[in-house]
Amino acid sequence: MGVSSPPVEQRVVGRLGSRKARRRFSLWLLLPLALLLGAGFWLWRTLSTPTMPAATITTATVTTGTLTLSVTGSGTVQPIQTRNLTFPLAGTVSEVLVQVGDTVVQGQPLARLDTEDLQMALLQAEANLKSAQAQVAAAQGEGATANEVAQAQAQLASAQASYEKTRTGDVTAAELAAAQAQVVSAQAQLDDLLDGASAIDLATAQSSVEQARLSLESQRVSLSAAKTKAESAVTTAANSLRDAQESYSTIYWNNREQERARGELTQSAKDEEAAALRAVENAQENLHQAELAYTQAQQAETIGIQQAEANLSDAEQQLADVQSGATASEIASARASLASAKSNLANLQHPASAQDLAMARASVEQARLSLENLTSPASASTLASAEASLAQSQVAYAQAKLDLEDATLTAPFAGVVAEVDVDPGDDAAVATITLIDSSAFVIDLSLSESDIGTVAVGQPVTLSFDALSDLRITGEVQSVAPLATVTSNVATYTVRVSFQATDAAIRAGMSATGAIQTVEHRDVLLVPTRAIQTRNETKVVQVQQSGQPPRTVQVRTGLSSDGMTEIVGCAEGEAACLQAGDTLLIVNTSSSSSSSTTRQSSLFDGMGGPPPGAGGRP
């Protein structure tokens, strides 16, 4: 029997097979790692490699021109003048003469108050003034008339003659007969008073009352008719004025529209406008005359009725006196007259006593003093008092006259009625008429503190309007506010811009934008701002040269505005600077990234870059 041992080859083979299995296992494990590393490398190359965007090159020409800087603000159109007109005194509105949209001239009446009380106050003030003037004249010795002086002189002469007769006792038969007749007359008057009024006296007094009453009614009717006629004339004149104003307003604005469209008016249009304006002025004068006539008619009615009422009152008082008979005072006066007449007769019939001479002498002295008072100035204190009263009367008259004038609300300037907040019958305290001057407008622009520093009065302003997109108007800075308006910690300054209303479409309240021209450089070299490249804080442009690579020129810049930049010079060492007419190369790309910008700025490095139209590196 043989002994078997494990086969050697089999062990070797088994060992080798186990190694191969382990090797296959390691390779499969490294494969995913290799794929991962490959993908990461590809991603790193993709992200780290810059791509050059597609670029196009255009050209631009160096030019000369004007470059301006401006600051912009917005605001609302306002009339150059706006006035809310009110009556300066109390009263009731009697008539309103205008309506919204009416064109008025300076001084034209707009509304009126009831003036009856004011006219009466003026008449009273005028009467007081005349009385004060007479008192001053009398105090100065100038108030007496020639007739009053003559009467005083006659009284003095009569007193002197009476004194001489009393002193000498020389009485004529005629003087004695006259004294006797005076006694008879005084006795008859006393008897009539004691007997009462006769039927004839009563009828006469009643007839006087009736005549006075009829006269009063007649005055009321006739004077009222005259006032009504004058008032109607005022209404007619006011309507004529309104018609003339409307016609003038239509012609005026039509001509302004024609001027804006054609630049100049025809002579016939100018004549038509001038004629329309004269028609307004004539109508205004006619209205003024009609108002004066109406005022005179009112005064005549007031005075005439007052006089007629006074006459009726006097006639009624006379009738009452006749009906009631003589009063105790009248009887006493008649008895005193009879006693005086008898005493005078007795004096003539008997020699004068010492007492009679004294009384006659006193009469002479009294007559002399009366004459001196008429012809000699008063004392200084009396004159001063009279002059003070005159001054007060003059002030009162002037105030009454002013109040009557203020009862008519007039236009302080030519313009357009914007608002009428009053009706006849309203209280004057709440009546308001708004008038605007539409011949020119202003706009208040709000500018920030960073923009206000370069703004000054007189600078031109280009205005545009939200509602009128095609309209551009040039205005001017009228004022600059010295103080800021602070709102929510933001400071702004108000700049007022004025301009003429050359277009009828412009209305107050429209929103507008104003561009204020603050800086202007004329006849300077200009290039598009896009043509300027910045390299390490140095500004350059690329100048195209015929048949040669582009030339890089370092430049010094000035103002920049609206896509254009001013070239004020070239860097030191440049053999040639820019000139008007030079052609510049401008690189336009579709990307705005920083890497693209860097790539664009280096396109012309080296030998001057690619020719016009070449693209970037793929």
Automatic annotation (TrEMBL):
Location of the protein in the cell: Cell envelope
Record's GO cellular component terms: cell envelope
Stretches for region Disordered: 589-618
Compositional bias segments (type: Pro residues): 609-618
Transmembrane segments: 25-44
Superkingdom of the organism of origin: Bacteria
Low complexity bias: start-end ranges: 589-602
Pfam families listed in its UniProt record: Beta-barrel_YknX
Keyword terms of this UniProt record: Coiled coil, Membrane, Transmembrane, Transmembrane helix
UniProt feature coiled coil, ranges: 115-142, 266-325
Annotated ranges, domain YknX-like beta-barrel: 442-512
Protein name according to UniProt: Efflux transporter, RND family, MFP subunit
Organism per entry: Oscillochloris trichoides DG-6
